[in-house]
Amino acid sequence: MNRFAIRCAAGLSVPFLLAACSSAPSSGGGSGTGAGPGGQVTITVGDRPSSSDPANRANFDKRVADFQKANPDIKLNPVETIWDATTFQAQAAGGQLPDVLNVPFTEPQGMIARKQVADLTQVLKDQGLLDKFNPNVLKIAQDKSCNVFAVPTAAYSLGLVYNRDLFKKAGLDPDKPPATWDELRADAKQITQKTGQAGYAQMTTNNTGGWMFTAQTYAFGGSIENEDGSKATFDDAPSKAALQLLHDMKWTDKSMGQAVLYDINGISKVFAAGKVGMFMAAPDTYRTLVQQNGLPSSAFGIGPMPQQGGDHGTLSGGSVQIVSPNATDAEKVAAVKWIKFNYLNKYVNQDAAVTSAKAGVAAKLPVGTPGLPVISAEQWSTYQGWIKPYVNVPLENFAPYTKVAADQKIIAEPPVKAQEVYAALDPVVQTVLGNEKADVGSLLTKAVGTVNAKLGR
């Protein structure tokens, strides 16, 4: 994440943020058809599920129909276009993108710099939405002046998932997960000594090794790329310390078990089977662990990301909705109304919140799982009150995370070619956990060279 984005949002009250982020409406010809007969505005909206996914496609089409019924002055043209890093630039240059599109957290800052997204500040303010967002999340979509160029609709921040039953068996307090990596190391060693299970495990394959190493590096105060994503930076002291700690836990403490090749599915299965005490993940891992892999809900616990040497923050991810930079004022208003209706309504409308919660219960899905809200603390509290009668997860097991996560700094994924960077880091983590004599410094130096070659393309 760009440091200026952090500075402009951190510590500001919402009223000041509103005053600082006002901007004049922009103008221009959008890719939609603009105002038609009777003042109707037509916009194209992306992310329509394909015909190979009939259930979700039908649900999406129903929301489109419901929106148009509620907004007869707006016509939506849904298309199947989705975010694809390999085709986006060509589509943007050729004017082939829809007026509204979902993109990951890694993209807004680059798009703002390249002027590929519309300034939505005034529209969000006029629609009564600007003060509804979590300012820590909103900064992902802001420029130096705190103007807003995208609408956050989903977010997560990584924490530490742990097995409360193994904590108890090891003589640890299940309500007090480790707050630092030194504490994590000590707890992992104790779990192994007392229970015979791996105290800690870390994902290493299918790009998850680089992903988790990035999260760990952030927690040690380091970075993966510089601000503009032109250079790799993970051959510095924080990254080396993070990787050395993994090496020492594996080979000195012997608290990470024998297996080293895990992706999210693999690590979820062994964790649910009670063979791993802790691993890094987001709160929504609850569904995978409990409902898909059979972990008793009482055994699930999650705390904030442990820090090392200061309060540095945690890796976040999620998605935002962008609007074409060529959209007219009317098209931007129509786009924001659709985004609110399709993605945010349950957070700001009680009827929508209750309907969604009831549907989740009926489908036997987790309802009320805590996480990183895209809306403000006040609005999130209101939303939680609306759905309280339908919550079916053990909220007390999330308490260590929720007490800290709302205020913990969040740091975006690497801004350029994140997945390629993660792929280059997978073998680094695998080697350290698979070879006791691995040279941490040499591995990182070589990987930096590999990543710089990719960033330079």
TrEMBL record:
Statement: the UniProt record of this protein carries the keyword Thylakoid: no
InterPro entries: Bact_solute-bd_prot1, SBP
Region spans: Disordered: 27-58
PROSITE patterns referenced in this protein's UniProt entry, alphabetically: PROKAR_LIPOPROTEIN
Annotated Gly residues bias: 27-39
SUPFAM superfamilies on file: Periplasmic binding protein-like II
Source domain of life: Bacteria
Entry annotated with the keyword Chloroplast: no
Name this polypeptide is given: ABC-type glycerol-3-phosphate transport system substrate-binding protein
